[in-house]
Amino acid sequence: MTRPTPPFVMPAEWAPHRATWIGWPHHEPDWPGKLAAIGWVYAEIVRIIAAHEPVEILCHDDVVREKARVALETHRVRLSNVRFHVVPTDRVWLRDSAPTAVHDATGRVVLLNWLFNGWAKYDNWQLDAQVGPAIERVTDLPRIEPERPDGSGRLVLEGGGIEVNGSGLLLTTEEWLLSDVQVRNPGMTREDYERAFAEWLGIRRTIWLGEGCIGDDTHGHIDDVARFVTDDTIVIAVERDPTDENHARSMDNLRRLEAASADPAIGPLRVVTLPFPSPVYWHDERLPASYMNFYIANGVVIVPTFNDPNDRVALQTLAELFPDRQTVGVHAVDLVLGLGTLHCLTQQEPLPR
Asked: According to the model, what pLDDT value does residue 2 have?
């Protein structure tokens, strides 16, 4: 295999996919008391995606693989578009533990295998750190382990914290990378991250928002607050209720986006707002319920819904923003107990350019 050829560019999520990768749920502490129901939610997610593109499913062991197969057969999923792979994992949030796919200078797909350390929070992440080599074995795609700009070791990143338009712009948050909580890369500065984004993802400008949403266990992932939907259009979650904890942080993020749009080196950008659903709780814990955690697959956009009147607003707005794709809501009140929903559990593998 020839070595990947820089420069690298991360394509937008709406670029054509070869497949979507997921991991079948098995870690009961992520969904205490609800794990049995979550398998059926996953079956519905796979049913929708597999109608449009192949789905590759990592299964913790043979028992999990059989549970997945039964669930998919019961939901009449298009199994000809599904493959199962026995790969032990700690959790199944492949947006963060699986590699980020980029194109090299020849248009070939390359797997960027960031160092995964359990969001700098959990102790059980060693199996998840082996997801990248497993996907490399299945796909036979070249895999690279990016290093910090100072060459002092591997770079820790998670896919849920980076959002790109495929044309040189990236969204991220200061809370995720620049705060002193859940520190991924000690000593790295804003400028260091921007150099890393340029080197590994082909980014010319980084738009720094402030904070993520309330309840986000990752401490600031962008995919619950703002997403690109075209090269120059960003949809952002805004909480209008001044008594809600998401209000001040979402209004600050909106102001930052508006300022970025006025920067001739970045904009102009079209900024579209979406509401948050009403707060979703489990006992006294507020969960990170957000419509921003949608996933874009070939021909379809799947959107988390929460039995809320704003579900209709979110689905209608996203349907208008993606006129060439179906827009399908997936019930996520149970799913969000795991502190993530549709974008968090998926990872796209693009086609070669």
From this structure: 79
